[in-house]
Amino acid sequence: MKIVHLYPDLLGTYGDRGNVICLAERARWRGIDVTVDAVERGDTLPNDADLIFMGGGQDRAQELIAPELLAMAPRIGEAAARGAIVFAVCGGYQLLGSRYDEVPGLGLLDLYTEAGDDRILGNASIDTAVAGTIVGFENHGGRTYLGPGAKPLGRITAGRGNNGTDGTEGAIQGNIIGTYLHGPVLPRNPAFADALLALAIREELRPIDDVLEMAAHERGLELARKRRH
Is 182 assigned a catalytic role? Predict the structure, then answer.
């Protein structure tokens, strides 16, 4: 399995590198050979990625990397079309849409983002079809609105989600998945991590011991319930 991590130096503000570590280790614990390739500025996208990850970054970092990502967009779209999973968090999620205010996006998710008047901040939880309840920490100023081509990753049970008004969080469109949830989100939600792995390698995964991961998940759920909306 090959995981490609896009621009970890710029899109890694909130520790979202932990999602890549989580995916790689959960695969290795099952005996799956894993390589992780970092794509930095000036690099080309490998043509054999099974999963492509983009993390979150500050607005300035997103503006800096947006032109290079735009040039890479067709290859990312082609990778998704041939079966690779594209997973993005926060700033990476926003960049997959058509725009963030006046900054053009990759157009791979049918959504757009506008700057908000305040930050959406705090522990959150959502109900999803892909992995049951997912918990995480939302921290973003943007307001993201989905078009008809994208479906929400989940519905909010605590927190404010994509825009604070329509009850949605994240997006799914084909093999492309985005969320605002940090944490990092995957170590705290082993079912979600395994769902992405299974999609990437196109195989069922054998169960592993998730006692510690589920303890973190339950703590996140407890904190989210204290916040509510």
Answer: yes
